[in-house]
Amino acid sequence: MSWSLHLPLNNPHAAAPHSSLTSRPANYFAACLNVDTRAPDSDQSKPLKDKRSSEIIADEKKFIVGTYARAPVVLESGKGCKLYDVEGREYLDLTSGIAVNALGHGDSDWLRALAQQAEVLAHVSNVYYSVPQVELAKRLVASSFADRVFFCNSGTEANEAAIKFSRKFQRHSNPDKTDPSMEFIAFSNCFHGRTMGALALTSKEHYRTPFQPVMPGVTFLEYGDTQAAVEKIQSGKVAAVFVEPIQGEGGIYSSTKEFLQSLRTACDKAGCLLVFDEVQCGLGRTGYLWAHEAYNVYPDIMTLAKPLAGGLPIGAVLVTEQVAAAIEYGDHGSTFAGNPLVSSAAITVLDKISDPSFLASVTEKGQYFKDLLVSSIGGNSHVKEIRGFGLIIGIDLDVSASPLVEACQQSGLLVLTAGKGNVVRIVPPLIISKEEVEKAVGILKKCFHVLDEATST
Hints:
By secondary structure, this protein is of the alpha/beta class.
């Protein structure tokens, strides 16, 4: 029997007299939610949609925990590669929600899949089977090295699962060892997430230091240093090596085939797992379905997330049968993961991006973008290098990229930073047109003068 049925609303024990809830006005919660409790003819309040950016930004600072240094832009709608703020200003989006909106904003097939699934079934938890989740897993297995899939809700969750799976694999594979391999290798400039295990694998100290102690047993090596990596793997203490074939947050650094192949060979000899983090670089962004395909080197575990559901939260861990055999009921889980709604969206995204003609267009547009950048701004004194693979591109500067990013935003172009703040990160929707590429490069070139102004002050 429900307790609430027998608890009078005016029961003095329901909330203590000193409670902040009892001291607030009756319409406090309505005010927080911007619900107008006054008569319909009152003009003393404005609906949320009529609020201007400054008001919304002020509300954000008042009500949301301050973990984000947001750009002063309040976005309201989007279509394709375009975004619009609450004042109606248009922006060309080269961020795609940090490499998430691979099909752009408002893709018609994606919307149709969501609407159809939402009418039928959105969520049931993983206590039960659901058809879209199984269909998505079948597609991921069919299109990759993997035999099985574990679903979660984000990239950091995917890497947390990979950490657990790696350690469980070592215990399962070495049942007689009292001290199985439990350590990990990660690399300079890497980013694997912000939860405690994934954070321990992330190289930037200022991300980790406020939350020490994080998970012990992680060794950071120089990205691309084959000798150091092989020597550490041969120590026999390493459960898994975590590596991004192309580093996004770290500054758009690409691996080499020789480096990845050396890791693969050393891991095989030592019984160590090789984990490819393709949260940002995977699923078509390089022009290959999976970034590691460009190197012809394959992992034991691959983590995915950002673009997989086209804007809805999802993560996935793809594993070989050998790894999956170590995992038992209850070893890991997630309430929301792979629910019917998000899985239906992901099936649509995966099907569209997997099309060979789609992938070929990403390769073509990525090369066109890089060539245009080189010819337009490559000679600028502040440009050290223009690098990338497909539609993940970095402009490495000799100064902070922030003034340029801000100037671009004011000119209607949204880009990101990476590395140590000195890299302009370009990760547009994969559907971007050549005309939009040309427009973007034109705006970037026009805004470059702010770097001279910033260095002269």
